[in-house]
Amino acid sequence: MSGPTRRRLLAGCGCCMVASSFGCAPPERPLIPGERPTTATDEGGLWAIMDREEARLARSPLRVNDPGLERYISGIACTVGGAYCRDVRVYVVRNASFNASMAPNGMLQVWTGLLLRTENEAQLAAVIGHELGHFVARHSLTRMRTARTVGDIAAFIALGTAGAGVQGGPQAVQAIAISALFAYSRDQEREADTFGLAAMRQAGYAESEAAAVWAGMAAEERAEPARDRGVPFLATHPGAEEREQTLRTLAASAAGTGRMGEDTHQAALAPLMPTMLADEVRLRRPERSLSVFQRLLARQPNEPGLNAATGEVYRLRAALGDDERALAAFRIAAAAPRPPATAWRGIGLVEQRRGQRAEAAAAFRRYLATTPEPPDAAMIRSYLVEGT
Ligand SMILES: [Zn+2]
Predict the structure, then answer these.
(1) Which CATH class is domain 301-385?
(2) Beta strands 100-102 and 107-111: pairing type?
(3) Higher pLDDT residue, 256 or 342?
(4) Residues 151-170: what's their mean pLDDT?
(5) How far, in Å, is the centroid of ligand 1 from the Cα of 325?
(6) Measured in whole angstroms, how far is the alpha carbon of residue 206 from the centre of its chain?
(7) Domain limits of the chain?
């Protein structure tokens, strides 16, 4: 068999391995920086749909209004994106699920659940680099062109606009629908990984951190094995353990070198951290939350906000021994120079449950002394009147 014939067969074969109702289409040439398809083409039509979605996302109440954070993430996208810097627009979306997705028109969504789980700039750069790989290789266009019939194409487009009919409905529905549009093949995933790691290398980031993101996700899966986790990124990508292994293998040659950017990352996320922690706790999925928090605490064991959130997860779970675990975490938070008010509230509620009236009253008083007055101040005051 001649070389060119083998290459052609391999190209066809790789595409046909996609397990879906769609057929095969050859890969597209990479997008040129600054390129925008004309409206007369199917690609132009796809971009027009995404432009409309982007306009909706830009004014969505779930878009996080933090220009500093958006600038920070845009900076990372520029560092790893190089010549494609101007083609990418970053939107931070308040959703506790782990997700990042790049639309074919350059709209990059980063969900807060992903930000909470990244420990340094290199990890976020890894996810963004991977998404840029899909964007530059125009993978969503290839996928659209694999649609064999008019019905398939209509179904494909409908995936991208499923949220449009939900007037004022949850933005997450729309975002998940958009991400479902981009369920890529194994070959496309590998191509995006290769692109992402090369971009990280060029930007001087530690490539080993790409696998670290997925090691954390795999640990979460092990901590909460029975539930349907409903992680949008995982709905469109191979499982966490497989991704960790692939990235570890691909990055093996450059292990242990490069920039992590831990301090800059934590400083950029700090203003949003209380919201992200509260959103995670609110999901009432203690095993998953504890897996995330313990991973973050390993690097910063005395961080007050993280300890208060950990205490709250134990307090709400209320399993055998959880009162003691909650108190231990709340007390670390309360000992900080500027403790989060929730630490004193947590101590009060746990001591009240244990029948320790004096300790509970003292903690509630500390909580009520915080300014501004906590939203549940009236209820906590009633506990004091009742003698807890
Ligand atoms: Zn991907």
Answers:
(1) mainly alpha
(2) antiparallel
(3) 342
(4) 48
(5) 38
(6) 19
(7) 19-254, 301-385
